[in-house]
Design brief:
Elements lengths: L6 E6 L2 E7 L7 H10 L5 E5 L2 E5 L4 E4 L3 E5 L4 E5 L2 E4 H4 L35 E3 L4 E2 L6 E3 L7 E7 L4 E6 L3 E2 L13 E10 L2 E12 L2 H15 L5 H13 L4 H13 L5 H13 L3 H18 L2 H17 L3
Parallel strand pairs: 10-16
Antiparallel strand pairs: 1-2, 1-5, 3-4, 3-6, 5-8, 6-7, 9-11, 11-14, 12-13, 12-15, 15-16
Helix pairs in contact: 3-4, 4-5, 5-6, 6-7, 6-8, 7-8
């Protein structure tokens, strides 16, 4: 948890408006509503202790002690020292676009111009864990079924870990009797599709488990946000930014799916989920998420979200040849 005594002021134009004392338990709901009404399109959130608020572009913030800033536009978590900051320079979306991610929409970001499931269409492509960076050292393993395959062999290999297990389905909970992945190390997850005892195809994914100090830092940021007791349909944006600051696709997709299961009607949730599925090379999953986002945005009259969802669907359909 963040243990600081901080006082922050927001400067809008030439007006200096004190909005938060972290020791002021009388920080009222009316004060909270005023600051939110100013910030219609937030680009991030300031967090410290059990208090926090969203910020917008064009703001200038004065911080008298350490605090944290979660940036939505470039998925960064910034620790701030005492001083005056412009939010535009702290949460600059261009910083996240220095090089394109490797997705089927942006293959130019891939080392060999091919995606992870384009070498062999009948390979048991690994769906989960999503992405390559993990914090859970015993991840669930899920893969696409292969036509005519009668069983699958799962192998996990690293410098410290080496085990094999044969299964009949396409899901394996990490075996409790097997050694977990080691923090700060890379491991290979290999899925081999078998037919009548003979291998017919295989797929390999290299995953990296963050060092324990990085996992601790991520958990502290998560705890700070969760301590704010934000509404579920608001907090997912903050959690996604924290996870994606370290490219933790698996954790953010699982978090977003929890809100989907809770019947969320927030189009931004489904739009962000679609974007994460794009990064995980799951076009059909992304298509369903974007379609849901578009429908909700249209019904709710959220024209900005509707326009974004339409554009994402257009790019996606073009990439998959529809």
């Amino acid at each position: 948890m963040f243990k600081y005594q901080t006082f922050i002021k927001v400067i809008v134009g030439v007006s200096i408006i004190p909005f938060l004392s972290w020791n002021d338990t009388a920080w009222s709901q009316s004060r909270l509503r005023i600051t939110r009404s100013i910030c219609v399109k937030p680009i991030g959130r300031i967090v410290n202790s059990q208090m926090g608020r969203r910020i917008c572009q064009g703001e200038q913030i004065y911080v008298t002690d350490n605090t944290s800033l979660i940036c939505y536009l470039n998925q960064k978590v910034v620790r701030l020292q005492a001083g005056v900051y412009k939010t535009d320079s702290l949460c600059n979306p261009q910083e996240s676009n220095t090089s394109p991610r490797c997705t089927f929409i942006t293959p130019e970001g891939c080392p060999n111009r091919k995606g992870p499931n384009e070498e062999n269409e009948n390979a048991p492509f690994i769906i989960q864990p999503y992405g390559n960076i993990l914090v859970n050292n015993r991840p669930t393993i899920l893969w696409e079924t292969v036509p005519k395959a009668t069983s699958y062999t799962v192998q996990v290999k690293s410098y410290n870990v080496n085990w094999v297990k044969r299964v009949n389905g396409n899901t394996l909970l990490y075996p409790p009797d097997k050694e977990g992945l080691h923090y700060g190390s890379a491991s290979k997850i290999i899925i081999i599709a078998n037919k009548d005892g003979s291998a017919i195809s295989e797929y390999t994914r290299v995953v990296h488990l963050l060092p324990e100090r990085e996992v601790t830092r991520i958990n502290q940021a998560l705890q700070a946000v969760n301590s704010l007791n934000l509404p579920p349909d608001e907090v997912f944006v903050d959690l996604d930014a924290i996870y994606m600051s370290e490219e933790l696709l698996n954790e953010t997709i699982e978090t977003l799916k929890t809100q989907v299961a809770a019947k969320s009607e927030n189009p931004a949730l489904y739009r962000i989920l679609g974007e994460r599925y794009i990064q995980a090379w799951l076009p059909e999953h992304a298509l369903r998420a974007y379609t849901k986002a578009l429908g909700l945005a249209a019904v709710q009259g959220k024209t900005d979200e509707e326009a974004i969802a339409k554009e994402r669907l257009k790019l996606l359909n073009s990439a998959i040849g529809r």
